[in-house]
Amino acid sequence: MVAVHALGISGILSILIVFLRMPFLKSVIPEPDRIFDLSLVIHVNFSVLVWLCSISSILISMAVQEKTKFFSYTWGLSAVGTVLIALSAISKDSIPIKSNYIPVIDNSTFFVGLTLFFAGVVLNTLPLLYRRNALTSSPISAGVYGISAMLTAVLICFTSAHAVTSNTTDRLYFYEQIFWGAGHMLQGVFSQAFLVVLLLEMKNCKLTHPYLLSAVFLLNTASILIASASHVIYPSDFDALATFFTWHMRIAEGVIPLFLVFFALCNTRAIMQSSNRHLLYSTVMFIYGSILGILSMHGTVTIPAHYHGCVVGMTAAFMGFVYTILPSLGYREVSLKWRNAQLGLYSIGQILHITGLELLGGYGALRKVTYLPDTASKIAKHCFSFGGALAILGGFLFVFLALLCIYRGQQGKGASLASV
């Protein structure tokens, strides 16, 4: 519920973001740039942090067979935090700061909300962390256990970063310092959740030997746990930390993306099936974003397109996963026809949008291709705009279909990893 509602709100804000770039509306609305920045901060946090952390928490909850009120309390805590994050934007003292990974609104309401949300996420991991048998029961269970451990490591990294960082007058630089490491580590958490969902959705596929999968999950988890101690090793050298986490993402966190490439190539026939169409879309976008990440190694101009591609690739897979677990939770099932239509619309739109973003720049990035011919420039602009519109429409269709099933269905037996 938290995940779907957050994604819906982020979709509404994405429309507002587009409108606020139109000259006519900018001349009518007071402080359009400030409203744009506030909307962008909430949009990014809801569509990335809240959405992806919520899906990761769902996987953790499903791994614990016995359901208790504890999970209701943690989800309630996260829901209250999400509401406060949204409300922070309407405060008079709201100051948007577009820091990397976790952009913030520099007021107490936002940080209370962020604290409550992530506290709920981390507390949700405790029941699984106490179950050591989860490490040996199956590779997927070990992967989910790793997600729990990594989320705790992210909290440790952020706490240690905040403890050693002096509160400077340059607020952007301050938040870059405290969120840089934890933000990088979160990407490792999300990619592991992506692989877990991929394995849950696909049956009888290649490259699924227990030892191989366990090794992939172990390498990714160990790299994140080790990285959480970086602020202890480099307590006052942010340049060294920034370089460390950048290369950590390129090498250590590259294990799962590299495995996904081989996994997709070896299971092309299974991914092409109509029931797995969302996995095809998500894998293509994720690999596309990863390729753009390789291209960004010698500059920053492709980073927004790279990050966008990887995030929406995971989002498409998680949308399909939500469709899959709805019946297990006692809600109505979305027909395969509607699922494929929605995900196809969303994915085509995002690919066009990412391509336009790569060519034209955007979200503060420089233009990648400086001397585009007029015709090519117009095509790139249309890709960026038309693709964005299709992606927004596809995102709204997902929220509509999911909430329609949730509010019109009756909740029944809870899902577990064994029942999916």
TrEMBL record:
Keywords: Membrane, Transmembrane, Transmembrane helix. GO terms for biological process: aerobic respiration. GO terms for molecular function: cytochrome-c oxidase activity; heme binding. One of its GO terms (cellular component) is membrane. The chain crosses the membrane at residues 7-24, 44-63, 70-90, 110-130, 142-165, 177-200, 212-234, 254-272, 279-299, 305-331, 343-366, 386-407. It comes from the Bacteria. This is Putative cytochrome c oxidase, subunit I. It comes from Anaplasma phagocytophilum str. CRT38.
